[in-house]
Fold this protein.
Amino acid sequence: MRCIYLIGFMGSGKTTVAKETGQLLGWRVIDLDQEIEERFGRISDIFKRKGEHAFRCFESEVLEAVRGDDIIVSTGGGIVENKKNVDYMNYNGYVIHLQASFKEISKRLKNDTDRPLWNNGQKKQRELYTKRLSLYHQAAHFNLSTDCQTPEEIACQIAKLSKSFE
Ligand code: S3P
């Protein structure tokens, strides 16, 4: 079973780190948000027209459609909202949490207008961050801090970890 799921808050670097790790290991990289957009349209439109619940259903559907050996799956920040998703990832592979501080995330997403759950004001952002952090810790096999490391350095750490995977 050689499948890695990267989880973490919006802006924690999952997409970039997945690409770097994929190159290092020669594994296929799948970005769930991209898959959702290819199948169901722009994420911001899905939230606007159909609501978060519909988005979460699409997200679970796409997660379960992606399987195989030697793949790295970059997930959306809310994948852990659904326990079924967490159980699925734990059963099918290794779950790695990329942890960035709220301060760092706020800096990175300062000008972001694409993420519906980020554009809710600072109080809501912080509440979501705090709630999610404990969900990420419960879901992950490994936690890696990303604030002071480059995507290349994090990818190297993941590549090393992967050597112990069956
Ligand atoms: C979401 C995070 C986004 C995307 C959607 C919902 C969330 O992905 O799936 O906007 O609930 O945190 P990123 O974590 O890649 O930004």
In short: The chain has eight helices and five strands. Residues 122-139 form the longest helix (18 residues).
